[in-house]
Amino acid sequence: MLSLGLLLLVSYVDYATGDEFLFFVFYFIPVALCAWKVGSSAGMGMAFLSGISWLLADRLGGHRYSTEFVGYWNGFICFTAFAVVGLVVGRLRLTLDRREQANQDLAKALADLQVSTARIHELQDHLQVVCAWTKQIQVKGKWVSIEEFLTDHLQIRLTHGIAPDAVRKLAAEIDERLGREHAGPRLGVAVERDGRANDGPG
């Protein structure tokens, strides 16, 4: 709204003074303000309105050209200049916003790092007690699992997998169980055969 108000004011002054005073540069103010506050797209729209306003003020102010082409050409040049200003100011504001966001993210990351570092120093200053049976760790009087200790106190992201030794152990257990299942029926058949042999003629 402020940009539109400034555009109307500049256009009226430009119309009232006629072609004696050059008010071309003052059209940059609403364009730059709109691009800074809203963005490049809005700045381009305001540049278009500023170009139309300048052309109307120039025509209604009584400015005469040798040919109509010259008047339209001047209007196109004005619009191009307004559009460049709107685009540059909008991109500048976007760059500053991104830099500010990056600085905020960096400050947050540094704060989190300081908190994590303080926690690590606090843990390093105290002897940690590990349960010999459950492998839990005692932290401030509370027993927690290793996963909870790493994620909550050291801010370490974890995932789960299986070690090669565990794979070999699991495979051995499976083979042992399967061997027992197959050995049971074979053992029963052998016992039955031995019994029949003992019951035979002596």
How many distinct domains? 3
Fraction in beta strands = under 5%
In the predicted model, the low-confidence regions spanning at least 5 consecutive residues are none
Radius of gyration equals 42 Å
The total count of strands amounts to 3
Q: Strand count, sense and closure of the main sheet?
A: 3 strands, antiparallel
Cα-to-Cα separation, first versus last residue? 120 Å
Helix content range of the residues, please?
over 70%
What structural class do helix, strand and pairing data support? mainly alpha
Number of helices in the DSSP assignment? 6
Average pLDDT number: 77
Structural shape? elongated
Q: SSE string, helix = H, strand = E?
A: HHHHEEEHH
Strands of the widest sheet, in order across it, are 1-2-3
